[in-house]
Request: fold
Amino acid sequence: METSKTTERLNLAFSKSNKTQADLARDTNLGRPAISQYLKGKVIPKQDKIYLLAEALNVSPAWLMGVNNDLTDFNGNPKTFKSKEEIFAYKLKHYLNMSASSKEIIAQVCDVKIDEVNKWLNGIKIPNITILQKLTSYFKCYKSDLTELVGRSSLSTGGIKVPVLGRVVAGIPIEAIEEILDYEEISESMARTGDFFALQVKGDSMEPKMSEGDVVIVRKQETAQTGDVAIVLVNGDEATVKKIRIMDNGIMLIPFNTKYDPWIYTADDIEQLPVKIIGKVVECRQKY
Reply:
């Protein structure tokens, strides 16, 4: 769910100011309808209005416009917020507002009671990683968009987001997989070359080039050439990441880690097991 940097930061500064919309309208000499449209992201304030809003909310105009990622007050002094729980509460309220969603819907999405959602919204606690994954999937945002002051969507360069899957299994279309861990961004030029998803690497079979927890960007395709690194389903098991070697009568799946042996499948194996290529790895993003 895309929002502009200015809209997100205006909401953040407004929520921390303890002002009402009427207060902000009075302090800036702007009408309440204009303030409401700015906060909802329906209208992006022009630079002269940015200056008035920044002064009233005591944040720097450069930060409010998204030019500077370091949050400072109007005079350029560092400005901080109290806790990660407080930041999460603001971010959740922001996404609820932008999505026209409700506490009841969020409770249903996360399979929790309303009381738990109220604790998040009141800055008392933050949810665990499993629930965060459900929220990022529902809002179609990055985890950092919910947990950090300046999330990855605020730093976006205008690319296309693709889901990071925890696993791929036989019989379930990529589009139907619900285990979405996060989102990664690819360039628009890359996105025009095909359909993409991302997959989190498991195990150490592709060390040292790919480590557990790294994320590979995958273009969906059912064929591969010798030397390609592909995502392969074997015998209905969970998909694996391996280097491909095409042989006269079959295929070899090669791990980069030399302590593991290659997997060799004949043409009959490919047909009967089956062995199915579902995508080609075009990029590996290391996660430290």
In short: The chain is about 35% helix and 20% strand. The two ends are 27 Å apart (CA to CA). The mean pLDDT is 83. The chain has three domains: 5-65, 84-147, 160-285.
